[in-house]
Amino acid sequence: MRGSICSPAVTSPVTQSAPSDMTRGMVSVPDLDSKIHVLRGNLRDMRRVLVAFSGGVDSTYLLAEAVGVLGDDAIALTAISGTLPEAEYADAKALAKELSATHLLVDSHELELDGYRKNPTNRCYFCKTELYGLCVAKATEVGIPVILDGVNIDDLGDYRPGRKAAAEHGIRSPLVEAGFTKADVRAASERLGLRTARKQAFACLGSRFPYGTEITPERLRRIGACEDVLRNLGFRQFRCRFHDTIVRIEVAPDELPRLFEPALREQVTRAMRAQGFLYVTVDLMGYRMGSMNEAIQPVATA
Question: Which residue range is the domain that position 247 belongs to?
């Protein structure tokens, strides 16, 4: 089996804590010391690990702890493809360097997979299958017995078909094993002085497309360019969603008023129409994680 090089998961008690609100300060997380102790102990027992590293909050914290415990026996792997925003790719390289981690960059070809390109509701299964297959191949090549991802407990509550791929490849999730919520990860990251402690989440660009809408390199380029517009204008949390001739903008609710400032609104509209969209719209609900999943889940009513 492809995942046979990995150790079985270890379970440990889980303590839930409230999600963080980054705009009003970090949540005080009880029992964080014990969770860190469990995490470091588990990493020590693993001896040599490969971390699937995106440069996000979770995988950066996990890599920092792994390097702190295991030194050169912890390495990072980042999969490079058109679905990874260029800014995120550059940041992942910079972060690995800051952590003094050995960093492997491997080309990913998920767009060549019909199961990914056609964008079914389990698209992430195909994406993660490609990623974890690359991790297994590289780990086998360099003689590393354990592969890790940065999933935390809060991630388990969303629709996550990629978890099936993780199980099939024997991937371990040490943040889950040690009981870390997202708030825990951010608080522990601050303790280590990681600049990602308050970094916003940025999923792969494939998540910008409604299920059933084909994902192509050209469409990825266009939607990535639209997000670059918002990034360069200083917006903190945003998504640009692809709807054929329409691009739907999501920004954090507290950033909506700025988006509607006349001069800035005109600038955004002009730049996004230059990417081939006839209409530029704004989602009045603002940014929320997994908004494309709303199409396959019951809609909540007041």
Answer: 205-296
